[in-house]
Amino acid sequence: MRAIASILAALLLAGVVSGCSTGSQAVLDTALSLRSGGSIDDPAKLNPSLRYLRVTSGGSVALLVLGYVEPDPQGPIEVWYSAQRQVLKLQNGRLAGSSGLATEWRRVLLVAAPDWLQLLGSNEPHAWTRTRDVMPGYRYGIEDHLSVARIAPPDNSRYVGEGSRNLIWFEERSAPGTPDADRLPPARYALDPRATGDPVVYGEACLSKELCITWQRWPVAAPGILGAR
User: Fold this and answer.
1) Quick one: DSSP state of residue 164?
2) Which pLDDT belongs to residue 105?
3) What is the pLDDT of residues 116-146, one digit of tens each?
4) Residues 151, 207: Cα–Cα separation, whole Å
5) Share of the chain residues as helix, strand and coil, in percent rounded to the nearest 5
6) How many CA atoms lie within 13 A of 15 on its CB side?
7) What angle do the packed helices 22-35 and 2-18 form, to 10 degrees?
């Protein structure tokens, strides 16, 4: 938590120096949106110059704001902050790290993760491997052997907004033979091929068997008929 506090302090200091820091204002706007009256799902409460992520866990809903983007050879890593200083990292639409939660993924390597746009042209499962360090428990270098494949639009997602059945859905499962201690519930992703940049607009995954989250880029884009690009 000290590391996160240091990052936020640096962002706030940068805002004082420059007079207009996107990072510091994002944290402040998130805190205000979560504490103000009414629903945080109201787009009118959002700053249009910022990027938001709607995150759910159990019955809780929060808005996170994009703090910054880390360059990485496997693709840029988006670092999202909540008003409670919880952090989620996303890389190409997949969970690439977390802190401030009951379960933390400290170091995540998504080497050679399949490209979403390539997957759009195939109905066959694609196998790949993720490596992660998990706290608490000091478990390092866990290798998740995964298989991702296209699925029909599910009826039980927590996607908010119209047009969910027009999105393109994928499910990611642990490979057969994965030790029970490392096996997590399946993850699911919804793609909008019209999206600029990362086509993943919604995802759901479990950090542990007890802690599952969903994330959705917010606010929702206007619904429509989607086609591969």
Assistant:
1) G
2) 96
3) 988 988 888 999 999 999 999 889 999 999 9
4) 22
5) 20, 40, 45
6) 15
7) 110
CATH number for the domain whose boundaries are 53-218: 2.40.360.10
Intervals of the chain under pLDDT 50 = 1-26, 28-38, 223-229
Is residue 96 within 8 Å of residue 110, measured between CB atoms?
yes
CA 26 – CA 14 distance, rounded (Å) = 13
Q: Do 88 and 95 form a contact (C-beta atoms < 8 A)?
A: yes
Determine the pLDDT at residue 39. Answer: 62
Tokens found for residue 131: 């490596």
CA distances (Å), origin 138, targets 56, 87, 134, 209, 211: 26, 19, 6, 17, 17
Residue 23 to residue 80: CA distance in whole angstroms? 10
| Sheet with 52-57: strands ordered across | 94-99, 87-91, 77-81, 60-70, 52-57, 212-218, 200-206, 187-191, 168-174, 139-151, 126-135, 104-109
Of the candidates 187, 195, 54, 51, the residue with the CA atom closest to the CA atom of residue 120: 195
Structure-token pair, residue 177: 């033979």
Within the chain, what is the greatest distance between any pair of CA atoms? 55
Q: How do the domains of the chain map onto residue ranges? A: 53-218
DSSP letters for 35-50: HSSS-TT-GGGS-TTS
